[in-house]
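[stage:ingest] chain + small molecule (glutathione)
[stage:ingest] validated
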Amino acid sequence: MSRITYYDLELEDLGKVYWSRNTCKTRFALNLKNIPYDTEWLTFNEVAKVIPSKTKTGARPTVPIIEDKETQKVIQDSWEIVNYLEEAFPDSPSAFHGNQGIHKFFQSQCEKNIAFPIFKMVVLTVGNACGPFKQSFRETREGYFNMSLEKLAGQPEDHAPDLKKGLEPIHEVLKSYPFVTGNQAGWADVVLAAHLNFLEKLKPELFQAYVLDVFDDDILLNWWKRVEYIHQINEFLTQVLEKEKSTSSTPISEANEQNSFEEEDGEEEDGEEALEIENRPEALENQNC
Ligand SMILES: N[C@@H](CCC(=O)N[C@@H](CS)C(=O)NCC(=O)O)C(=O)O
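[stage:predict] done
[stage:export] tokens:
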């Protein structure tokens, strides 16, 4: 049994597939930092029942949370969790590399520019796959956004220009650097991978068309492969790594091969206007899946 127990969100119709962007920020941070963990899966209905009994703070029940058996602490919220992990596991690869602020800035840029187009591409899939929570998911989200889920979802191609616009500055950076904030993978890569994994797991064909194939080069594909050790590891692999660690002192993140980089032409701006709903302050808060 691992020191860390991590709570993830299960969609009844999908089984144990990690899909949720907020929980994946924590899953991928644990992977980045090479920290073994056990996953407890909760459905939407179970989140409301189980999380308050764990956190005991009265805060809105959300996942991710982690429980640390060594310190008996329970931490809620992916940002709080990564900060806790930085302190609690000082010998693990860092998520911030001494520059927490730039990673936080990137996170908020992703929430603003990447999250919403992806949310709209997958919202019907999530709504249809959450079993007994289906009606409640529809009612709450339709209430937040004051429109039907179908209207919110629109057609995937409606949201592709906004997603491309959000990816453009990242694509530019990745022409020159292997990772989002430079030469080492960190929280920024974790956050981006979590957002893109949301689309990849629920709509792989849209992930291919609107992320991997959206620019005329392999820059994003190469980054996606480079950070596979963050987004493809599950707890079984972390147990294997744990064993390997006792026989080798090279962290997997250091062992990860870095590709070479060539200057390539940028893509043209789309000039698409953001949808009005995106400007509503509660819109970001309420994409809570
Ligand atoms: N800022 C929080 C957001 C957490 C959040 O909204 N989690 C969603 C899943 S991604 C949730 O638990 N939703 C439960 C619900 O809507 O009932 C974080 O980063 O951890």
